[in-house]
Amino acid sequence: MGRILLVEDDVELCELLHEYFESEGLKVEWVHDGGEGLKRSFSNLYDMIILDLMLPGMDGLEVLKNLRKKSNVPVIILTAKGDDVDRIVGLELGADDYVPKPFNPRELLARIRAVLRRAKETKDHKLGSSEETISVGDLKLYPSSRTVLLNGMPVELTSTEYELLEFLVSSAGKLVSRQKLVQKVLKRSYSPFDRSVDVHISNLRKKLGPYKDGQKRIKTVRGEGYIFTLPKDSG
């Protein structure tokens, strides 16, 4: 059972989601303003935060920005239909996914389960010296603990960012289509208008930076997808 904090000022929606999700085995609590939502999010009591962006007091983007300074708890943001800028900013600030309103509760439940699955292996694991690794140049991934080291230093990633990175690194030097990343990592149907993958990739580029010689680690193939490049000295 996952424990969910719903930060949403629509009381009727909270009650509907509470009833539906608990019938599906999820434990749901809710608060109606951003400040209280941020305070509760820091409690380490929840497996996921469902965060509306339009909130009284402190808006959802500000909550997310402050939350990510101290916590990598998975977050799905709820956005008004058509608010593409807010969705992109939310993903840039570290949201794992977004769902536009109005939505079918079954769709939100599917997103929750997908993100919880991605986050499950990141909890309570420690890096072992004999652990299997995936290495490309100065980057090392430890799949069993979902740990990433760059030049020996840990890189903090969300669960979604980690899965995207592992998928790309496992195919280093080869093109991986956006469609495959959406279907295999985000676990949903592909839409050419969904830019979630692109924003997550942008976050990875910022966190990893280029190789020492300036070569890009993740190359965009316009209209196709991405390649995690091999360092030039790899032969």
TrEMBL record:
Signal peptide feature range: none
Residue ranges of domain Response regulatory in the record: 3-116
GO molecular function, one term: transcription cis-regulatory region binding
SMART domains: REC, Trans_reg_C
Gene3D superfamilies: 3.40.50.2300, 6.10.250.690, Winged helix-like DNA-binding domain superfamily/Winged helix DNA-binding domain
UniProt entry tagged with the keyword Transcription regulation: yes
Residues recorded as bearing 4-aspartylphosphate in the entry: 52
Identification of the protein by name: Two component transcriptional regulator, winged helix family
Naturally occurring in which organism (per UniProt): Thermovirga lienii (strain ATCC BAA-1197 / DSM 17291 / Cas60314)
Organism classification: Bacteria, Thermotogati, Synergistota, Synergistia, Synergistales
